[in-house]
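SEQUENCE-TO-STRUCTURE ENTRY
===========================
What this section holds: a protein sequence and its matching fold, both as plain text.
Question of interest: how does this chain fold, as expressed in backbone structure tokens?
***
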Amino acid sequence: MRKLGWTALAVVLLGACTQEAAEDAAGNGVADSGATTDAAGAEAPATQTVSTPDTVRGAEDSGEHGAEGAVHPPLDPYPSTYEPYASGATLITGATILTGAGERIDNGSVLLEGGKISAIGAAGAVDAPAGANTIDAAGKWVTPGVIDIHSHLGDYPSPSTASTSDGNEATAPNTAEVWTEHSVWPQDAGFTRALAGGITSMQVLPGSANLFGGRSVILKNVPSRTVQEMKFPGAPYGLKMACGENPKRVYGDKGGPSTRMGNFSHYRTAWIEASDYKKQWDDYWKAYAKWAEKDNAKDDAEDEGAEDAPEAPSRNLKLETLAGVLRGDIRVNMHCYRADEMVQVMDMGKEFGYKVSTFHHAIEAYKVADYLAENGVCAAMWADWWGFKLEAYDAVNENAALVDAQANSCAIIHSDSATGIQRLNQEAAKAMAAGWRIGLEIAPEDAITWITANPAKAMGVLDQTGTLEVGKMADVVIWNRNPFSVYAKAEQVFIDGAMMYDRSDPKRSPRMDFEIGQQDNQHTGGAGQ
């Protein structure tokens, strides 16, 4: 369990963000680096020898099991060191429960035990173990922890200055080699404010200046000293890509692309390079496995006539990320507004053998909602944020509801905002109300999936969180009323069964070390008061 001997950590918690849309509205939002062309990508000298090659994705995909001693680039060289905070058994009873799995339980109970959901059902049907803390939640509502699939907390932290602006590596159209976790500042005060809004997990993405912006990271919203302590255990990486106006605006006078057709030519060129890079490694693993099967791979390998082991290809961080997409290890998050471009991007995925997980912002998703559903692609949308540039103009407030109305759909409400993330339940409520106005009667038990189960699904962590089901992480929010009410407030927030926020208890309303001693630093910092 996590050790709590840190004075600093008692007041540290997660942070703020600067939204891409605000950058768009401002015209650019990225530093003018003067870079003109896409660099080749730095080679990384570090490799590791894997003694259990069956676990290496590249060897599996090549149809071979590889061989002990073959070189395999580390899949996660900065692994999660996250450990849940200590927690006891907690029974929350008498509440209206929205499970996130499409079920509503009136007068229900949920038992948190060992950091997991231990039981859930009607009040009276769930018994508390001896010594458990019982919370009478009559008249209140309980949901899974809220998940934001599109955040920049930590990379655009508070205070927002040029020195803390670390979310856009706007130096080349393709910067797939950068990893957003290397910019995350754990003391961003926005994390605590998000916690007060019920946020228990989030995906932090690079910005949208580039065609390939770099890798995303999924975080648990807990007080931490390092980003590794926040990293969601076992969560896959994502790749941030952007289409449309942003890349051609940023690079139009820096060597290109300057048009949408230029955007696509750059994408396709990069995927061709990545396909070749992937093949080099797959061929190497096959050759190494074949070499290892021969006598010269045994103890007598130094005998005369023995062949040398195949030489591993040189590593390239940029192509390593793109090859990870082609292998299915890394999920594509595509910043895209126009309907026609979304369809073209899906076709490009079919051309090169990868799939877009989610289109972000997706202002015109309603126009191609059937395409998205048929291809199993999620749309992460705002409720009513639009008009800050031309490709964001043709919006309707019913966007999310119309996407949700399709069979096998995946509608998500996201923030892309340091303030919006604090009120993601209200954003979902606005989208829900817009659907009602056109006759789509969306129930609370369905709308809650837009900010819980669906983002978890798109991020690849639905098996661990996103719904209140037995065995999943006990990421839970107690609301003072229906979470889709404008008056709703998160009263208590649990992460892996530990109460991380309590609106009524200053000891459970954490502040960042950075905030200590600042003017007007009131005890209810996590509540944003």
Observations:
- Residues 1-65, 524-529 have pLDDT under 50 and may be disordered.
- The domain at 6-30+147-279+317-459 is CATH 3.20.20.140 (TIM Barrel).
- The chain is about 25% helix and 20% strand.
- Residues 38 and 172 are 5 Å apart (CA to CA).
